[in-house]
Specification:
The complex is a heterotrimer of chains A (309), B (153) and C (347).
Chain A: H1 2-10, E1 16-22, E2 29-34, E3 65-69, H2 71-82, E4 91-95, H3 104-110, E5 117-121, E6 124-129, E7 132-137, H4 144-147, E8 159-160, H5 175-181, H6 185-196, H7 204-208, H8 233-245, H9 256-260, H10 268-282
Parallel strand pairs in A: 1-3, 3-4, 4-8
Antiparallel strand pairs in A: 1-2, 5-6, 6-7
Chain B: E1 11-16, H1 20-29, E2 38-43, H2 51-59, E3 64-69, H3 80-98, E4 105-109, H4 115-132
Parallel strand pairs in B: 1-2, 1-3, 3-4
Helix pairs in contact in B: 1-4
Chain C: E1 6-9, H1 13-23, E2 25-33, E3 36-41, H2 59-62, E4 66-75, E5 78-83, E6 91-96, H3 98-111, H4 119-126, E7 128-133, E8 159-163, E9 167-172, H5 175-178, E10 187-188, H6 191-207, H7 217-222, H8 229-233, H9 242-246, E11 253-260, E12 263-270, H10 291-310, H11 320-324, H12 331-340
Parallel strand pairs in C: 2-6, 6-7, 7-8
Antiparallel strand pairs in C: 1-9, 1-10, 2-3, 4-5, 4-12, 8-9, 11-12
Classes of the chains: A alpha/beta (309), B alpha/beta (153), C alpha+beta (347).
Chain lengths: 309, 153, 347
Amino acid sequence: MREKAEELLAKKAVDLIIGFGEGSLPLRATPLFIRTPEEADQLIWNSFCDNNLATYLHKFNRFKIGIVVKGCDARSVTALALEKRFQPDQVVLIGVPCQRMVDRRKVKKAAKGEILRSREEGELIIIEGDGFKSSLKRDDFLYTSCKACLHRNPVQANILVGEPVQESGLAEAYPDAREFENMAPEERWRFFEKETRRCIRCYACREACPMCYCAECFVDSSIPKWIEKGLSPSDLQFYHVVRAYHQTGRCTACGACERACPMEIPLVYLTQKLNQEVSELFDFEAGADSKRLPPLSTYDVEDKQEFIK
Amino acid sequence: MENTKSWEPKILAFLCNWCSYAGADLAGTSRNQYPPNIRVIRVPCSGRVNPLFILKALQGGIDGVLVSGCHPGDCHYLTGNYIGRRKSATFKRFLEYLGIEEGRVQFSWVSAAEGVKFSQVITEVTNDIRKLGPAKRLVKKSEELGVRSFPDP
Amino acid sequence: MKLNPARLSKKDLAPFLKGLAKDYDLYAPVRLTDGVSVLKKVEPSDEIDLGSNPQKGLKEVFFPQWEVMFQYEAVERRSRVASMEAVPRERVVLGARPCDIQAISILDDVFVGKEFTDTYYLQKRQKTTVIGLACHEPCSTCFCSSMGGGPFHREGSDLLLIDLGDAYLVEFLTEKGKAFRKNEFLKKATAKEMALAKEIEGQASKKTNASVPVGGIDKKLDQMLESPLWNRIHEKCIGCGACTLLCPTCHCFDIADEALDKGGRRVRNWDSCLFPLYSLETSGHNPRPSGRERTRQRLMHKFNYFPKNFKKIACVGCGRCILYCPVNFDIRHAIEMIQKEEGATAL
């Protein structure tokens, strides 16, 4: 990856490359912005490269950008290109087939104390702290969205770094949505209500999401004022319903929203349901086809309408 | 504070100006009776209805929402109701997924000539909502902040 | 009169709290889910998690994320207004960390000034007894010792609890704290226990990072308003606001009027300088138009503007911003980069 990045920068094919660098804490990587071939050595790749870097494309859309993407991120870029967020030849995708990312929170909870050092060795994560050292199997600690992932290979990549991986043969797609739907309606509402109640309206979910880029988000609208800025439980529910719903037909199930939340609110089950709907109703998956219009900006005369009186 | 014996559902009906609203008018002039529980909001097209309207209504304590428009192919703006149909399908499924009772939010096609159908739809919807009971989910309560009731003057 | 410390057996903690609840409203870290807790008023069904360092800390007790300032109601043809700053019962906060407590002194500078006083803040402040909990196992991200504090920092607490294992050592630090000395669950501490506490304190103080280079940073920043550093440092920040909301010293707020059916209320909510809307003016002009200006503002406020006004750095080294930032923006690195930046004089 470093070679390819160096090449791109040396040829001036791009002005800027957005990738991952070493984090300042164990179990973390951090977004890295490099502009010269010499800086390419700082790029890393590991199981903690969990941010969706496509969210930075909005900030830098005056430049030619090379961006390191996993399967889900590549789809986000395609979806954004469809929404005309940048010129077609402006973005070079450096694709990495994804080994699926490890949830550092799950790892922390399995540790016997504060983790001071960590490293990866093949299928294991080795964690060390004061007076303990453990090896954990990385596959036991994957993110919710990664466990449900069906498209780990960034097929749209201009440059592919690494061998394509075998897509996981999930018995059923959208497992978290299906599991949630097994509950009775009252239970589902109680779960949604309980989980959203601790939201602190930091908007980390919104900012981490590459598809949230409205110049004025509905929460900031004062005419009309949809919701207040405080923590009224009803407003918190409203916020999460709408933020998820605004992803209909646009979400690539990257899970960045859930990972960004400081209060550990589950969010993947919301967008997973919308992705399932869009697949069932319109046979559409965000970012898969760079030519098909997003489902809510078009129509089919034959759309289902059995629910309409 | 509602006395459940005498509780009457409050239903918001978004009616598209060209078809459903005219259909409602026809029901009225033909003296077709229908339950008086609906409050009508006239919109230019069913496709104009923003899902946020539905949420805001539920938040305010509305017990049921109906969105009604022209039949497919008859939209005054040609394709508005098709877009509306997609929004309605996805939003309705999402709300039910979250646990909002099935039947709180309903949709219909009623043309300007269908005064009878309009009364039938309203009667059905009102009965459905009556069976569901007052809306409790998503409702914003003013007591939330532990705001004390006013001290006596 | 200096009082000898007492001891509170952990077995007595539940009845101690129950006893307190008779006379006080109790605030403590409450577990919301595995790994998440906030410092809030304890309801009967809440699970207290004293060992945790809550995401939302002591700031919430005196300066809640949302509070009603006043409410009004239409009555017949007139309206009546009720102001909501009164605090009906005395409060006790249990389990506040020394970093959070140090942060309160920063908030005091803002809200309890010589000329202007925020009555909503002040009422809560005056009616609250703070029982701090010393950090016997600081995290590697804690750098309180670099910021004038420390894991056993006592200033600001009325009482300090030190975890000895099967009991807490209870130090009486202020007159307000001494009022608790007659409490039936606070027994006499042994000399051995007091010695153990000193040992724990010594070890804990070594663990926190005392080498974050904040010396002279305010003077350094005086020259750096237009430094090219700001162009690079803001890049990975996504502008979410999590750091500011979880920061124990951040205190931006927004006031909004909410109309309810027959009346309404004026509410104060937390806000963040990292949100673009925060500095957006009615004309449409935004003096902080991009992440560069907003990130610069956050760092300048903490390390330059606030020290200029109040002679304190508005950061207590709690490490929450480092732990919870979605993109691992590390304020310690930012401080180092600022100090290293050339073309500016440092003292």
